[in-house]
Model the fold of this input.
Amino acid sequence: MARHPLVGDVRGSGLFLGIELVTDRETRIPATSHADYVKNRMRDRRVLLGTEGPHDNVLKIRPPMTFDSEAASALLDVLDEVLSEDLAQPDAR
Done:
């Protein structure tokens, strides 16, 4: 969260996680178009995740039971790269 201003909240338990994307952390304005961008860029990088929530701005990470620490590290690396892209910044789109 500290590295990416687009991330408003991270919640969940175990391997089922939700990452809420917002354009402003104080006003909590949903970043729906950003979530769609991140979801599609992750798919381009061969990582599948979905979006949910009333504003479709929560990235849902639901890995398979065979998910191991190496896969978790790879997912986090790719997500960090995608969230660092210019079009994934709160003032973009």
About this structure: The first helix runs from residue 32 to 44. The chain has one domain: 7-88. The beta strands are 7-13, 16-24, 29-30, 50-52, 58-61. The CA atoms of residues 13 and 62 lie 11 Å apart.
